[in-house]
Structure formats: structure tokens, C-alpha cells
Write a structure and sequence with these properties.
Layout: E1 2-8, H1 23-29, H2 35-54, E2 65-67, E3 73-75, E4 81-87, E5 90-96, E6 100-106, H3 112-118, H4 121-128, H5 133-151, E7 172-178, E8 181-187, E9 196-199
Length: 203
């Protein structure tokens, strides 16, 4: 089971009152000031609620979200895994029965210094040989982020220590481009191809 959804956060309120958000989300929002960042964060959890409902998982709202291994957010007292991401006007959500990582990113300019510092040689070659280097850079970047998020380690592991073309320990990544965004999903156990990718209306 692997379901992915995304939605535009422009109409999401920056005030969480009345939205039934988790204590975990409210704590994070207390540290966020820009309205855009608050809409992104709120929109991501609203997507999670919608996706859990769509796959038939009855969770009480507000959700009980805590920190699991390495501090990765998790649903308490549940075997369902999730991961959230946001960038620009969009938030995204992945729900799975196995550890999963997700990254969504607006198309970012390819900078040679970042390419050399963060990408393996085969990834660098892929980007440099592409007709649109910015698209290729963002594609690889989101796949790398999704793997690190699946592990729950974030930037605690060097980005150039693994290649998305040969992920360690049987992990796999899937990628798509849509609406000026790139979305990547990583599964640590089996295929990362989603059962569905759904655009949902927010809030």
C-alpha cells in the first residue's frame, strides 16, 4: 500500500484555529512566522487527514502524531507510515504500510557547486547530459531527499554518500513531474511506485 496526494495551499488559512490539528503540528506552527510557511505546514497535515480517510483508516482528529526512530514523525499506536513535504504553492503526503519518504520541490536552478558537493559522479553525469539541467537536478535532488526522509535521518547522512541509481539495502525511489513541481517517493522495502497519485482540494 502506497498512496500519494498533493494540493495547492494558497487557500489554506495561516491560523490553525478550528482546523483540528495535532499537538505536534501546533508545536511546529508556534515556531513558524511567515504566513506562507504556516499554510504549507497546515496544508500538509490536512492532506494526511484526507489521505488516511480515503484509504479507509479511521483515525480520530486531531491526529496523535509523535516522534519515532531518529525523530521521524509517526502516527502513535499505529502501523501506518506517512511522510509529508511542501514547497512553493504545494504540499504533499505519502501514506504506506512500510517506511516511506517523500519530497516535493519546485524546479530549482542547477548550481555546479551544489552538484559537485551533493551528487555522486553518476548523478552529476545524468544532470550534465540532460537537455534541461534544472529539471534533471530537481529530479535527482527530490529522490535523494526522499531516501533520507525514509530513513528518518535527514541531512545527518551526506548526500553524496549514495546514488539514487543504486540505493542501498534494496530501497527504491519513484519520481514524477507535474504542475512545475517534482515529487519523489522512496520505499525502504519493495516498490516505491504509488497505487495512486491524487490531487486534493485544500483546505
Amino acid at each position: 500500500m502506497l498512496f500519494v496526494s498533493y494540493g495547492n495551499v494558497d487557500s489554506v488559512p495561516s491560523d490553525p484555529d478550528g482546523l483540528g490539528l495535532s499537538e505536534y503540528r501546533l508545536d511546529r506552527l508556534a515556531k513558524l512566522q511567515p504566513a506562507e510557511k504556516r499554510r504549507q505546514s497546515i496544508g500538509a497535515e490536512l492532506l494526511l487527514v484526507k489521505e488516511l480517510s480515503a484509504v479507509g483508516e479511521a483515525f480520530p482528529v486531531p491526529l496523535h502524531i509523535g516522534s519515532g526512530i531518529n525523530g521521524k514523525p509517526c502516527l502513535l499506536d499505529s502501523t501506518i507510515h506517512f511522510n509529508l513535504s511542501h514547497s512553493g504553492h504545494f504540499a504533499a503526503c505519502a501514506v504506506s504500510d512500510a517506511p516511506v519518504g517523500l519530497d516535493i520541490q519546485v524546479i530549482s536552478p542547477c548550481r555546479d557547486a551544489v552538484l559537485r558537493r551533493c551528487f555522486c559522479l553518476d548523478e552529476q553525469e545524468y544532470v550534465r547530459s540532460s537537455t534541461d539541467r534544472d529539471e534533471a537536478f530537481t529530479e535527482i535532488w527530490t529522490q535523494k531527499e526522499s531516501y533520507m526522509k525514509a530513513l528518518g535521518l535527514g541531512l545527518r547522512i551526506p548526500m553524496d554518500s549514495f546514488s539514487v541509481f543504486d540505493l542501498p539495502d534494496g530501497a527504491s525511489a519513484w519520481h514524477t513531474a507535474l504542475e512545475g513541481m517534482h515529487i519523489s517517493v522512496c520505499s525502504l522495502t519493495g516498490s516505491a511506485i504509488p497505487d495512486t497519485v491524487t490531487k486534493r482540494k485544500l483546505p
